[in-house]
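Sequence in, structure out. First:
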Amino acid sequence: MLLAAMAAARKGERWTAQDRVRSVEPVARRTGERNTLWTAFGPTNVKMFAVAVAVEAGAAAEALRLAEQIDHHHSPSLERRVAFLIDQAKGHEQRRDYASALVMLTMAEREAPEDMRHRPAARGLLDTLVRRGRRTVAAEAARMATRVGVPL
């Protein structure tokens, strides 16, 4: 259902996407945080998907509001924690808050520098920060790109 929610968000069906996320919240509360068969399913992951759906739908303010309520360290999956940080960076980028986007990417880099190199979303965000950020943000984003091996 969570992947179906993302598909709906990508098709522009925001309300369907949100309904799909909400439909699994009771199950997540019952199961608690699990990583059965590497699903990383649980309340934290469901909340992270709600943020991803909001970002995908272009509702940056809502995404960032939701993100503030989540302690991503509760997720048993490094991949999901990094995706969550990158989703927050996207939300800040949508609001043209490039300094905050850089902070989120810096946190993601600390968690998994290899993800910054191989995730298209992270690469795209770094490119945007270098091109559109103010001088200090652009310079730091360029240094990060160099550190993680992303050609700009």
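Second:
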Amino acid sequence: MPTSPARISPSSAITVESPARLHLGFIDPNGSLGRVFGSVGLAIDAHGTRITARQAPASRRKAIVEGATTDTQRERIERHIEQLEAALGKGPAIDIEIHETPRAHTGLGSGTQLALALGTAFARVRGHEATTADIAKILTRGARSGIGIHGFDHGGLIVDGGRDARNPSITTLPPLIARQPFPEAWRVLLIDDTSREGLHGDEEKRGLASLAPFPAALAAHLSHLVLMRVLPAVAENDFDTYAEAICDLQQTIGEYFAPVQGGVFASPAVARALEAVAAEQKAGIGQTSWGPVGFAFVASALDAERALAAAQRVSPGAPLTFTVAAGRNRGATWRAAGLRHPDANAA
């Protein structure tokens, strides 16, 4: 256990709801100044994760997982339960019910949000006041980016400071170095190519290892963009500057990752739809993480309707789904949940 969490009164059942996030880009994948990666991201109010943890009936020793969408997700949850048991100590079985999760490997941070929601609910039912950073370390989340972890705690637009490249054995959470509330009027059109998944696992590690060093001049350019355009634009509600800066950031980092993902965008269909949006109105377009989900930031709900119509017009027959979202300026929430019948799921 990374720390010794304080004890709190255990709860019989807890429901945790956490936000999805958009990863808007790395700042320095090469660590040219000694810190590697560094990330910009945004918590959003769509495609969230919601789970409930409940004390199992005393007669049963093994936890039950309900609502998992795939065998892989179920296996991941069972592995996380084992990791939490090892860190927090054995105790009565805790059942897990999955109510809602995003599609995996699409760039929305589903793995991190599931882990953090599960860990938070599990710890509170057991009576441990573990921090999000504690849970992330137990469940080995945040290896490169801290956006999902800080988004779980705070919401909003977030910049993290990456990791110390000179001390790779140090696995502390990338520090939160900026957090801005996202303008309430702005919207983001999300486009998912349901025929694809983004890079993940060993394939992602091999892809990153195959890339050429990231030029220091580009890292300096991205740092300048984030510090002097993205953050001030959000603070001053300056949509045009924000959109231009996001396009610049995304084009720069997309070209770097293009040899691994097949282009600036992982999905040609998503790219066509986003280009149609940008041809009709001011928009900040790009791809979250490895995709395939792409995004178009627009200035208002009305602009989002226009963006959706433009994207759909050029996508007949394409395996695309569309969602209009807003930024979410709060982190995860949790509340007491109802217990089931004492004999439910008895074994």
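Remark: The chain has nine helices and 14 strands.
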